[in-house]
């Protein structure tokens, strides 16, 4: 069996195991804006676009990228991450080395997560109820088993919004990228999320003008936040969104 076939099978099995299902019942839909790798521009222009509308986001940090360049763009500094925390944003885990988790053995993956936990604790992040995002969205059966025991939630990439219920160990997203061919459009998904009172989680990277192919322009991000609020959705970080849904699950 080739590695690619093995990984596809492992991911297929992961979809149906180690699940933590949460009902989505509430008076309003929820939109969550998340930032992977956390480029410096996400800390500055990204956070500002959300704060302009009085809302906050989730920033998934890989400690090994701190102070580094990624695809020629500066990543976050410790000072920027502390400022995000001080301003009420959520810091999540994105492994330490920004490495694919689907091909790592148990020992190496555990070491990666432990190392990033120490880094986040050094910043003052509360590790209780920590949220995680798989780098590159790369998850598989073994990784999901390990992460389901360590994190309150784990986020993948793609798949669109959730309606009726969500597996907190495999939260899907819609990519908010400058160059995207995903359908339906963001505006259509926001309307559907509001109408069906679901949960739409968005992911992007840098926030600058012009953005990279994995990023989004600051003004467009601000308009996206406004569109979610105008549609009647709540805009919440991932952890706060889970609190919202859990408080209504009983």
Automatic annotation (TrEMBL):
The keyword Signal applies. InterPro entries: Glyco_hydro/deAcase_b/a-brl, NODB_dom, Polysacch_Deacetylase. Keywords: Signal. Residues 29-236 form the NodB homology domain. The keyword Signal applies. PANTHER family: CHITOOLIGOSACCHARIDE DEACETYLASE (PTHR34216:SF11), PTHR34216. This is Polysaccharide deacetylase family protein. It comes from Herbaspirillum chlorophenolicum.
């Amino acid at each position: 069996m080739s590695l690619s076939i093995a990984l596809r099978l492992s991911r297929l099995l992961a979809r149906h195991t180690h699940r933590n299902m949460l009902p989505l019942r509430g008076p309003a839909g929820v939109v969550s804006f998340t930032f992977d790798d956390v480029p410096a521009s996400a800390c500055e222009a990204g956070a500002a676009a959300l704060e302009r509308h009085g809302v906050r986001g989730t920033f998934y940090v890989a400690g090994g990228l701190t102070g580094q360049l990624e695809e020629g763009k500066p990543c976050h500094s410790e000072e920027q991450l502390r400022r995000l925390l001080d301003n009420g944003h959520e810091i999540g885990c994105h492994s330490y080395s920004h490495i694919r988790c689907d091909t790592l053995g148990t020992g190496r993956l555990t070491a990666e997560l432990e190392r990033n936990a120490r880094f986040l604790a050094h910043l003052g992040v509360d590790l209780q109820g920590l949220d995680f995002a798989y780098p590159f969205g790369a998850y598989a059966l073994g990784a999901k088993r390990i992460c389901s025991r360590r994190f309150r939630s784990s986020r993948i990439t793609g798949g669109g919004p959730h309606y009726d219920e969500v597996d907190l160990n495999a939260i899907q997203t819609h990519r908010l990228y400058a160059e995207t061919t995903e359908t339906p459009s963001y505006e259509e998904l926001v309307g559907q999320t509001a109408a069906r009172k679901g949960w739409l989680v968005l992911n992007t990277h840098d926030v600058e003008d012009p953005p990279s192919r994995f990023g989004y322009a600051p003004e467009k991000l601000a308009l996206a936040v406004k569109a979610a609020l105008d549609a009647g959705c709540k805009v919440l970080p991932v952890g706060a969104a889970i609190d919202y849904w859990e408080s209504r699950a009983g």
